[in-house]
Amino acid sequence: MEKIVLTSLAILGFVPALVQQVSAQANPLPSWNEGAAKKSIVEFVAKVTKKGGRDFVPPMERIAVFDNDGTLWAEQPFYFQGLFVFDRVRALAPQHPEWKDKQPFKAAIENDMKALGAAGLHGLLELVMATHAGMTTEEFERTVKDWLATAGHAKFKLPYTDLVYQPMLELLAYLRANDFKTYIASGGGIEFVRTFSEKVYGIPPEQVIGSSIVTKFEVRDGRPVLVREPKLDFIDDGECKPVGINKFIGRRPIAAFGNSDGDFQMLE
Amino acid sequence: MEKIVLTSLAILGFVPALVQQVSAQANPLPSWNEGAAKKSIVEFVAKVTKKGGRDFVPPMERIAVFDNDGTLWAEQPFYFQGLFVFDRVRALAPQHPEWKDKQPFKAAIENDMKALGAAGLHGLLELVMATHAGMTTEEFERTVKDWLATAGHAKFKLPYTDLVYQPMLELLAYLRANDFKTYIASGGGIEFVRTFSEKVYGIPPEQVIGSSIVTKFEVRDGRPVLVREPKLDFIDDGECKPVGINKFIGRRPIAAFGNSDGDFQMLE
After folding, report:
1. What backbone torsions phi and psi does residue A167 show, to the nearest 5 degrees?
2. Which member of B137, B217, B250 has the closest CB to residue A194?
3. Which of A83, A163, A197, B69 is found 20 to 30 A from B208 (Cα to Cα)?
4. Using CA atoms in the order B151, B155, B157, B159, what is the torsion angle rounded to 10 degrees?
5. pLDDT above 50: residue B9
6. What is the pLDDT of residue A8?
7. Could you read off the pLDDT of A215-248 as tens digits, one per residue?
8. CA-nearest residue of chain B to A197?
9. For A43-96, what is each residue's pLDDT tens digit?
10. pLDDT score recorded for residue A7
């Protein structure tokens, strides 16, 4: 069931006219309970799209920003990008025999969540750099796409990109049908989220904001490429979410949706 | 004459349907000479928009990137943002009596271009930080807008935002009428260019990439604001232009237009 929804959504992302037809129907958010949340969203959209109304907002200023982990897709048992990191460490381990006796790599190889927890943010960052840097942006994109196409959630036995929230997909389509531009502002990696955002959410790469590492222009075999370096560029979380939104969008969104402490400043 | 063109363009920016009608006419680039440049642009657009053709590009991937200084607007006698810096130093000088004996401020106050040249990039950066940091993003935006509304080019006696190239305005409109998303990738300040890009070029702030300084989230008088700090974040020039394009757009543009050495890597 979830799969059917997702597939049709992926098509909708490429056929805006169809989204509009579907969403302009009588009940734009069918999966939502008839409660205060739905009511306030529908009233808000009616208000800002009412021509001549006191709260009218021109289409070009209708920007809505969404957190990703825990808002658009699930985040249990762990951030999916974290699970990607651990899978990559295991895939790369044969080329790094030294990892099997070295923390935090040993913990990732053995799926030892307790030892990984003990390694803390610093340890996690070491794993991120070992798996996210040293290749071109195109090579990284291919690696993530391959992983998303083959890896599955341990409990639900489904691809991670199927574990998205149907009510939120409806909300994205509803807002776009009302001329909103929908953005993701994620604490996750910008290039990681961009590999699936268009297909899964109908959000093109240029409307994804996220954490990033430094990239460097190089010419390899006569071809210009960008190489990912093991150095943090920007962490898009907490007080930095409004910074990232200002940097990428340059004006205040009129709507924001998030689920965690890291979204508090953005919601302000 | 230039003013009429600009004014109508500013309106076009907000009425995309009108742009389409205007530009779908027989001659889409009326100010262009009937030469090789125009021919190659028109052929390129015909090719990528031809459904079923070998070179067809879906609308969501039609991204065109433009340099600003010297490409969309003029850059003589000096980058206009540089002239803004010198004007701001003069405007702020009464609050900084120490500047009148201190380089490079003294040179800016006295409009001594030779001494400014001798101060080099380091000196210019010192002036940029003194005039671009220490205020909120909203205060900075207001200052730039006030300056653009009142300052005039020494030779042409026109506002700087009138010194834009008519053929390039036509090219922007022509590409947008063919479902291109038009971006600016400028070596200039991102928040500087964003203050006028929508009105002058029809390019909204979220489609402007540029150099930036660090901003910090703060709550002032109970209101969340972003404060501009005297610290470089990103220089969007040379080898960093493709880096900026990848960061902000996340895919390769299919067209790029620039006029200087600093655009070479972007054009590659």
Report:
1. -60, -35
2. B250
3. A197
4. -40
5. no
6. 30
7. 999 999 999 999 999 999 999 998 899 999 999 9
8. B250
9. 999 999 999 999 999 999 999 999 999 999 999 888 999 999 999 999 999 999
10. 28
B225 CB neighbours in chain A (<8 A) are none
Strand-pairing partners, residue B189, are B211
Nearest CA to CA, how far is B3 from chain A (Å)? 24
Complex ipTM: 0.80
Q: How many CB pairs under 8 A join A and B?
A: 77
CB A106 within 8 A of CB A115: yes
User: Inter-chain contact A205–B250, Cβ cutoff 8 Å?
Assistant: yes
Contact B217 A243 (CB under 8 A): yes
**Which residues 91-150 on chain A approach chain B with CB closer than 8 angstroms?**
137
Whether residue A249 and residue B181 make contact (CB cut-off 8 A), yes or no, is no
What pLDDT is recorded for position B142?
97
B223 touches chain A (CB under 8 A): no
Q: How far apart are CA A194 and CA A15, in angstroms?
A: 19
B133 φ/ψ angles, rounded to the nearest 5 degrees: -125, 165
Q: In the beta sheet, which residues pair with residue A164?
A: A73
Q: Is a pLDDT exceeding 50 seen at residue A250? A: yes
Q: What angle do CA A175, A179, A185 make, to 5 degrees?
A: 55
Instruction: Write the CB contacts of B130 (distance below 8 Å, at least 6 apart in sequence).
Output: B89, B92, B105, B230
Residue A133 has a pLDDT of 96
User: Is the N-terminal amide bond of A77 cis, ω within 30° of 0?
Assistant: yes
Distance from CA of A3 to the nearest CA of B (A): 24
The nearest CA of chain A is from the CA of B112 a distance in Å of 34
Among positive and negative, which fits the CA dihedral B56, B59, B63, B68? positive
Does B250 sit within 8 Å of A60, measured CB to CB?
no
At residue A19, the 3 state secondary structure works out as helix
Q: Where are the alpha helices (DSSP H) in A112-165?
A: 113-132, 137-150
